[in-house]
Amino acid sequence: MGDRRRSQRLLAVGLVLVGLLTIVAVAAPWLTPYDPSAIVVAEYRGPEPPGPAHPLGTDTLGRDVWARLAFGARTSLVVGALAMAMSLVIGVTIGLVAGYFGGWVDAALMWVVDLVLTMPTLLLLIVLATVLPPSLLTIPLVIGVVGWTTFARTVRGEVLSLRERDYLVAARALGASHGRILVRHLLPGVLPGVIALAALGMSGAIGLDAGLSYLGLGVPLPTPSWGRMVSEVQTYFGVAPWLVVLPGVAISLGVIGFNLVGHALIDLLGDRRA
Amino acid sequence: MTAYFVRRLARALTTLFGTTFIVFLLVRVVPADPAVSIAGPKADPETLARIRRDLGLDDPVLVQYGRYVAAVARGDLGQSYVTGRRVTDVILDRLPATALLGLTSLGIGFLAGLVAGLLTAARRGSRTDWAVLVASLVGLSLPTFWVGNVLIYAFGYRLAVLPLGGYGTVRHLVLPAATLALGVFLLYARFVHTNVAGTLASDYVRTARAKGAGPVRIYVRHALRNALIPIVTLLGLDVAALMSGVVLTETVFNWPGLGRLAVQAVFSLDVPVLAGTVLFSAALVLACNLAVDLLYGVIDPRVQRG
Description:
Order of helices and strands of chain A: HHHHHHHHHH
Largest sheet of chain B: none
Helix content of chain B: over 70%
Distance between the termini of chain B: 11 Å
Number of helices of chain B: 12
Order of helices and strands of chain B: HHHHHHHHHHHH
Number of strands of chain A: 0
Shape of chain B: flat
Oligomer: heterodimer
Number of strands of chain B: 0
Largest interface: A-B, 47 and 52 residues
Shape of chain A: elongated
């Protein structure tokens, strides 16, 4: 089918975007001679358009935009990865336990999932970000605590379908403990599906982090972040449109990249199982 | 039907009860002493102690929670630390602006998405499917606040045909509504496309066609009706997601709604207003989900037994 080739192409584009972003994030200090927080113009005469000295121009404080974008990639990826890992651990654990034990345990945990889904995500994030002093660790924590429900639901569904398989019945008959069955037998079975969700989770976390930092509730200064780059300069849109356009493009590329990878993986893995 | 509805209602109410607990927990740990927020940082210790006693902050946590739930049940969400106004009144003041923005964008985005999805489903095939998928994946990845800013630049600044922000006339509504509607439109265009294209390819549609049913009848009676169930479900789930968009869009356009209220409350540490807004939004989402569940039972009698 053409569907498979289509998914493979989406996956390739997604991986290229994610790869480029990762390279920029890792190699940021070698890709630019400037400190992202330092004022690099000798004499400030307003934001400078892109030119030979500053490939993407300078911002409203006279800082190098390319340096800020490159180091901002670090912030975005670190926050995204930590948040996604957090959601993954919470979601997979809750999904495994709910699916395996069933009964009232399942009912109670799924009620919690409903509860979290009912809370408006960004509002909940805003409150949490206010409660915890914002830092490179608390922001992912906050996003992770809100974003685990998809993992839990999917893993629970997978476990329900795996539960009655012969090898699990055998393991139970041999007297394996609950912990052993969960970790040794069920966890490996659900992991492939989780990888696709992890990519989507990354995409969502990068988007939410951008939203939070746009509102001024993200990772605190002086760490450069893409969302705040937009809010810092939006009143200058008329004189220096590139200052608003560039960070937005960066956020979009990050979100699109992981989104493509996730969607393509879901299609490809679904194909394989069918 | 009644049993189904009662079950759904009971679940919604228990969930609402759960949200009061989460909101209460958050309010308890927000690191702002309400007494200081009300009386100001220069207040003497006796005044602070008196305010704390009046607010019942010295009582055990469970007692405070019970009192909170009882107050919420009466529709009393407390008083703003900053202005002293009843939070319920503050929220009701801001609600029309948010409702106007949210309903306009949901309505326009949904209808446009429905039409686009149906039109593209008629021309289904790998090329069209691919275009719809990529357009929607890319479009939905653009950050709301950024789309808003780009629209302000294009229509407010460059073309200078629409106001840069604010509230009052239809002209003020155009850009924020377009910002929010874009996401809704892309989501539904893809969703309707996929679902209708799926049903159009199914056996019973082939049978209907073989029996001589015209294209309009096939679309309306068969494809659309069956695709409606997942579409309505998504509509219910979408309300929660729309709230996030509302918060950002209202901030970008200085739109005096609930989202902006919440963001302002964060920066002034106005905990009751913040907590009230969150609780209110959660209740709104629950009400919408409940409405969808009901609608669901009407569209598809099969679900009542589930």
